[in-house]
Design brief:
Elements lengths: L10 E8 L4 H9 L4 E8 L16 H8 L3 H11 L4 E4 L10 H12 L7 E3 H11 L22 H8 L1
Length: 163
Amino acid sequence: MWRSDGWGWKARIGLLVPHADICPEAELHALSPDGVSIHATRVRFGAMGKGGTLAASVGSNPLRAYLEPPLLDDAAELMAFAPVHVIALCFTNTSFLGTVDDDRALVARLQQRTGGIPVIATCLSALTALKALDARRLAFVNPPWVDASRLVGLESARTCQRF
């Protein structure tokens, strides 16, 4: 419903998503209550083809490239020009490359470009939720498109086990 104070009168959430991935927007639109608006920007992901197709196995190189400046950083800065309240990095796969501290460093790096708008990441948010729920055990499932044998390390899985 339209309101005189505009779209997203409760909250406006900005998303950084791989260029052909429509799932985060669709999921968040479906989950969002009235008054919350979702706004996405696309970031090129080298392992993703037309129609959102992925290679049968994605090694660490495309994932690492996605994390390197300037594409994500520029996208975060551009999203911050919109009147959003928070920016979510919607790309869980990058958390398979390192530790929880690497995710925190990535969020801090992106937040330097947003002029004070908070940046959140999928796995860090999940860890926060699991702690709030006082979860004691966590099952870690490697997505089929990420070839675990080609990743340098799965420290994230061990970190999650110790959270």
